Amino acid sequence: MSVQTAFAAAAVSLGTTQVHGATALTAAKSTLSGCTGNEIRATIETGTTGAPCCTECANDATAAANLADCNAETTYVSSTTCCQPITNAATYNEGNCHAATCSSGFAASVASSTASERNKCCAARDNAQSYAFSNCAVTCKATFTKVDENPVDETTSKCCAMISGAATYDYDTCGASTCAAGSTVSEPKGGNGADAQAKTCCASVTGTVKFEYNCGAFSCNNQYALSVANSTTNKKKCCSKIADATSYNYANCLASACGSAKVPSVESNGANKCCTAISQAATYSFECKAATCASGFKPSGDGSKCCQEVANAAAYSNDCATVASCNPGYEKNSASTACCKSDASIQSFGDSCTPTCKTGYSFVSATNKCCKTVADATGYNANCAATCPSNKPALSTDGSSCVAASTSASSALSFAALASVVASLWLL
Hints:
By secondary structure, the chain is mainly beta.
């Protein structure tokens, strides 16, 4: 008879020998001392590893067949234990003949709730926590979720890393198939890996239609345009479109480049514009006026142009034709085309900054200055010191005129005499 009908469901002890997991032994072979007919008995050569678990009682064909069945359906565990084999088991627990370990690619299930049943070896799955006894259904480790093949086959279910926002998962890639409300399925990961087609879930963003796998923007709706990629994360975003803009910064969505003959303005309240280019302009105001100009140029009054720089000019007319104002210490010439060095002696300037002097001052062509007038002076040096003629070689005491030397001496003598008289009176 087969061991399936020969051994008890529970463990059966035969002296020092136990046989687990097989069907009932007949009463005829309940002891080691003997058995009847062509039945078999379970026995072990104590201490001999790999010894047969069964021996025959009768030397006939039926007994030999029964012996072969018995040995085929039991496996040696220890000197006191033989177990009915479990498919793909590698080792067994001596106490209950449960699979202790399984062969490569398999893992032991949890035990059955029925005491007479043993566990089994299930096809191993990465990141599995345990396997059910009934159907090898997998329970996954924390941060992983069970994903079933379609149609559902519990023996092929797998454990996929949880994806934030994912509602369902793709069996082949462990990527997201659908996402919860407020999230959008990304484009495939790409590359050459096994997960090249995997997708993730990205938080929905206004203006963004599709997302890269890194959750940066992949495409935008008609009112938005893609920014350049962030240098650290390589992500892009969708920016509100700016007329004539061809490129947008990632950080603030400002236009960083514009179309033909257009240039970006400066930022104002988080936005900028693309302005029509102005010759020699370096930067532009938010109103698209020239804010600064290239070296040697300055903005016009209304910022519509860049004017050729005039030395010491503070501001220019809108058309750059004239100087509107000069720096402190300078005045415009009569044509308002230059800024001339000014002081309290000058009334106004001609086209070449030739001054017209105020009353009491004389123009000196050699120095282009206005010097305080000295009567009868024949000239003035660079510091406006007067040169007197030979017949009036001296300056008057107030410096307003040239006088004869004797007059100057007489005046000095008269003053000395007056001082002597005052001194004499003081002594009286």
